[in-house]
Amino acid sequence: MNIFVAILGLALLILIHEAGHFFTALATGMRPRRFYVGFPPPIVRMKRRGIEYGIGAIPLGGYVKIPGMHRPAPSDLDAHFGRAMREEPRLVGPVERLKRTLAAGDLERAAEELPALEERLAGASLSADAQRSADRGLAELADALSPEAYWRQRAWKKVLVIFAGPGTNLLFAIALFAILFMVGNGQATTSVGKVLPGRPAAAIGLLHGDRILAIDGRPVKKPEDIPERIAGSNGRPVTVLVQRKGSPQPVRLGPARPQKIDGAYRLGFVLAGRGLGFWAGWWESLKLTGIITRETGKSLARIAHGQGRKDVSSPVRIVQASSTAAAAGWGEYVLVLGFISLSLALLNLLPLLPLDGGHIAFSVIEGIRGRAVGREVYERVSAVGIALVLLLFIVGLSNDVGRLGGG
Prior knowledge:
- By secondary structure, this protein is an alpha+beta fold.
- The chain has three domains: 74-145, no CATH class; 189-274, Pdz3 Domain, CATH 2.30.42; 278-404, no CATH class.
- It is built from 13 helices and ten strands.
- The protein has helices at 2-27, 74-87, 92-104, 107-122, 128-145, 155-183, 200-203, 225-231, 278-304, 315-328, 330-348, 356-369, 375-404; strands at 34-48, 51-65, 187-195, 211-215, 218-219, 238-243, 251-256, 259-261, 264-266, 269-274.
- Strands 5-4-6-7 form a four-stranded antiparallel β-sheet. Strands 1-2 form a two-stranded antiparallel ribbon.
- The two termini are 26 Å apart.
């Protein structure tokens, strides 16, 4: 059940990402052709105002089709109509005329020639595969030549539509963190929230709800004093004075020798917290987002320099971490979901095609040049980007297999 909840959370994050692209494209005049919950093939679909809405058979995330991502090229016609021309030679003439028009850069005339090709295809006798490919080609050309085509838009519109995906993940993560700070343990108190089993705090009888008054005879004035005093002991035994419910007088516990946990001396308990106010919660959320972003950037820099290979994880590890968090409680799960949403945003903003950051980088370049980058350049750069992303995936998967196997 926990694994199902984890997969559902990951699917929700991907769906949110695609919804960001969809609604921003709709708002900027690039009317998407499809919006699916899940990936095609469709189980259920309907068309409204030129947009096909559907539920895909692959229940993970979502899918958005924005028209005309690339400037149409003559080679597109060979890919889509090659088989149809072999089966029906009468199609060669209109297809070749359209190829020459595209090669000359006369897009208006190319749009005018599309109906003639469509009419010739309607009267052709083609196999099912050739017909599907030709129909797809007509739809792709019509989208690429339409005023709504992505590649024809101003640079700022293209950047906005592409950034909306990771931007929505970023805002979702900030909102989740803010909610946790407001309704969860956003601000530490001097009371004990949880005592870890097998640790020195449990051995001396520290209990949930105990309010810590002093450590080694020094009064505790603020929550930050507690970890500082224990860490400052450098492993020497300490005593803890607490106010316990049901005890009229303070209770002295210890001495207890702190253990080194995660690089610092600790007794093994967690302070209880209380929720922050609205604005304080959002401010702490922004600070946490900044810290995670900075550390992620450092991690990527280490990987680029050949270090930090063990930091890379695949979806296997993501689902495993989400499943564990779901078992621990809703607070842990929401926190991990926020981390994953932020990670998706940061990963997608890397300037590599086919990631969103790569499309943003090319949109900026095209805006500076004043014309679209050739399809062949996109394809070559995409091949490099896909290879790098696959390499990261393989490294992450090998790490996760090693963790699962106890290596």
